[in-house]
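User: quick one, sequence for these tokens?
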């Protein structure tokens, strides 16, 4: 039977789009299921303010009356204005190992891109850089961080058969925090703080962290501005991501650096939530809520979520006291393994830093690109 493609329009369509992932990855011990409620909100323009600056369509594929694939098509007008390019983003691809299915889905994104006057298709990408980005191409037998993605090995083969080429890679590291590394970092941190008159900012509550929400997003807008796939966050987007992420943060693992009472850098780490999300299996229940609180306090692995430093201070070693404070907090709470959840392959300075640790480069994600004929 041929493949049928349906645009996602109704609430029921959105449920089918989200539920496919749970079918494809059922019993997969490496995948970290997202909360279904959050995924549904992501697809709904009533909740997701990114729809306001994007032309968007989502699609589901049927074969023999069964959902066998899904994909999103996003024209991020802010990003295209920034780059001067005519991109349509492919987003959230999932499909069975059937080339007819993946080809039909990609063709639908290309068709939408042509309708909007686009000349290139790239992805997987979300609306912004705080959404999941990239296709996993290495590390299929590594547990997924909730800050990243997991895909089945055949996805890569489908993309390459469809004529996609590499645009950018993110690589991920696993670091072991040894006593020698921590001692060396503390020495360096003290030197930086003293030399430049920086003040280390530690938090005791989520309420206290939220006082710095505006400053954190201002730093993100400034320090990430030149990076690929990034668009600035307006007030609605800021609130959307605060609502989405802040409740999973533990203040112990959030640090800042100030200069003359101005926040100039921040570092956010989260104790791994993968096992908790696997246990919840998409259901945001009361039990899941308490399991998340427990994981925030007691764990052996932590994931890097986000770090940013104001541009004019990026050569002043601000990252040293930021990361050192996090390392000390992790050690005090019995966490010795640290997951760096993605750095651009071309960022040699950061990669050199991670390689100074007892490290393992264990995952790789790719953003693909292809011209639209």
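Assistant:
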């Amino acid at each position: 039977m041929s493949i049928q493609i349906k645009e996602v329009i109704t609430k029921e369509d959105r449920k089918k789009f989200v539920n496919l992932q749970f079918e494809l990855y059922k019993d997969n011990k490496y995948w970290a299921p997202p909360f279904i409620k959050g995924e549904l909100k992501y697809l709904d323009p009533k909740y997701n303010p990114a729809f306001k600056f994007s032309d968007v369509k989502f699609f589901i594929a049927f074969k023999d009356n069964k959902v066998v694939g899904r994909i999103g098509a996003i024209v991020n007008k802010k990003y295209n204005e920034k780059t001067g390019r005519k991109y349509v983003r492919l987003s959230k691809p999932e499909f069975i190992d059937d080339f007819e299915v993946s080809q039909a889905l990609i063709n639908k994104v290309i068709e939408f891109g042509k309708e909007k006057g686009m000349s290139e298709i790239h992805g997987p990408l979300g609306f912004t850089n705080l959404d999941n980005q990239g296709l996993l191409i290495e590390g299929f037998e590594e547990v997924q961080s909730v800050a990243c993605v997991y895909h089945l090995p055949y996805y890569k083969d489908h993309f390459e058969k469809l004529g996609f080429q590499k645009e950018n890679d993110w690589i991920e590291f696993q670091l072991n925090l040894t006593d020698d590394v921590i001692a060396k970092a503390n020495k360096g941190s003290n030197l930086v703080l003293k030399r430049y008159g920086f003040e280390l900012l530690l938090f005791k509550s989520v309420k206290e962290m939220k006082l710095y929400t505006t400053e954190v997003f201002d730093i993100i807008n400034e320090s990430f501005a030149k990076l690929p796939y990034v668009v600035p966050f307006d007030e609605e987007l800021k609130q959307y991501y605060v609502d989405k992420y802040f409740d999973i943060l533990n203040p112990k693992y959030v640090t800042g650096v100030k200069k003359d009472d101005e926040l100039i850098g921040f570092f956010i780490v989260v104790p791994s939530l993968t096992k908790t999300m696997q246990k919840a299996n998409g259901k945001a229940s009361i039990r899941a809520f308490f399991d998340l609180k427990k994981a925030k306090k007691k764990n052996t692995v932590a994931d890097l979520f986000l770090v940013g430093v104001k541009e004019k201070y990026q050569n002043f070693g601000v990252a040293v006291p930021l990361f050192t404070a996090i390392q000390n907090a992790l050690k005090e709470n019995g966490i010795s393994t640290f997951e760096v959840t993605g750095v651009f392959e071309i960022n040699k300075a950061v990669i050199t830093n991670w390689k100074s640790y007892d490290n393992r480069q264990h995952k790789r994600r790719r953003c693909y690109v292809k011209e639209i004929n």
